[in-house]
Write a structure and sequence with these properties.
176 residues, 3-stranded antiparallel β-sheet, 14 strands, 35% strand, alpha/beta, 2 domains, Creatine Amidinohydrolase, Chain A, domain 1, 4 helices, elongated
Length: 176
């Protein structure tokens, strides 16, 4: 789990994500907050000038990368198959190059964001909003109503599906 910021993130959902006992990677600032919740941090991504709050925490040097990119480079280089990312600031350009290399799920504010491949389908109740964060070519969809500007709403209880030409697209759904 990569925790870049959690100012707008519910503790209950954090607890659910931690039930899997993941490796926890974070920033020095967020490490203090996690530590106050009694959550053990395994790695800190740093530019090297910050204090590390505990001696048993390992350091991932950011180098010339931003903290998100440094962490994703570390995770992919060490063959992690998946990562849940919690962030306050969503910069899609940081995550897009890694969508084909590692299974990403990004939690930002009240949204869950993840890449999907063409032919994706998922069951949702009627009236749920789905947002396409990247613009696909030749998009075809079923079970959705286009509300403009990348926003779609499920038309009925059941499956919606997406077909498109790109290797993947990022979608966002509301956290319930």
């Amino acid at each position: 789990m990569l925790v870049l910021g959690m100012d707008n993130f519910e503790e209950e959902l954090l607890g659910q994500l931690l039930e899997w006992s993941p490796t926890v990677i974070t920033t020095p600032h967020t490490a203090e907050k996690l530590n106050s919740f009694g959550i053990k941090v395994d790695w800190i991504i740093s530019y090297g000038d910050e204090m590390i709050p505990q001696s048993d925490i390992k350091l991932i040097p950011a180098g010339n990368n931003n903290l998100a990119v440094a962490a994703l480079k570390f995770l992919t280089a060490n063959n992690y198959p998946a990562v849940n990312i919690i962030t306050d600031e969503l910069t899609l350009a940081d995550f897009l190059p890694y969508a084909g290399k590692i299974n990403l799920v990004i939690f930002n504010a009240q949204q869950k964001i993840y890449p999907v491949t063409s032919g994706f389908s998922k069951w949702k109740p009627a009236g749920e909003q789905i947002e396409l964060l990247t613009t696909p070519n030749a998009l075809q969809y079923k079970g959705l109503q286009d509300n403009g500007q990348g926003l779609y709403k499920t038309t009925a209880d059941g499956f919606f599906s997406l077909q498109f030409e790109e290797p993947f697209l990022l979608i966002a759904e509301a956290l319930n």
